[in-house]
Design brief:
GO molecular function: DNA binding; DNA-binding transcription factor activity
Keywords: DNA-binding
Order of helices and strands: EHHEEHHH
Helix content: 55-70%
Shape: elongated
Radius of gyration: 23 Å
Protein name: MerR family transcriptional regulator
InterPro entries: DNA-bd_dom_put_sf, MerR-type_HTH_dom, MerR_fam
Number of strands: 3
């Protein structure tokens, strides 16, 4: 992946390696979540090997539907813990997961209610169905 002599890759190479768009890499870079290693003489972004792991982590967290601010808190906490012996899983990740599980539980309850209502409509004989459905 890192085909250059200096061990750095272009934004396009990083994006291709992780299966995301250049626009996505630029978005996270511009927000400081994915620091660039340097700029080329032409002003192009260059990324080091650590960017692969970092972008992979960002993708995983976003895949869990965590917001960008939550991802930032998690990464900031992880950065603060790097280099400290015995540093365990952080509170930011735990808080984000607990919050997401709470929201997901509410969404699942709403989906179950909607499914039950649709099944009632489906099972109701056509002759007994009201002309207009009123769901309260």
């Amino acid at each position: 992946m890192f085909s250059s002599h200096d061990g750095l890759c272009t934004i396009g190479e990083l994006a291709e390696h992780l299966g995301v768009s250049v626009k996505t890499v630029r978005f996270y870079s511009d927000r400081g979540l994915l620091p660039e290693a340097s700029r080329s003489a032409g002003g192009h972004r260059r990324y080091g090997p650590d960017a692969v792991e970092r972008l992979g982590m960002i993708r995983s967290l976003r895949g869990l539907d965590l917001s960008v601010p939550e991802v930032r808190r998690i990464l900031d906490e992880q950065d603060a813990q790097d280099g400290r012996e015995g540093a365990g899983a952080g509170g930011a990740l735990e808080d984000a997961v607990v919050g997401r599980l709470r929201v997901l539980g509410s969404e699942l309850a709403a989906l179950r209610w909607r499914e039950a209502a649709l099944r009632l409509v489906q099972e109701c004989p056509p002759a007994e169905r009201p002309d207009r459905l009123r769901l309260v």
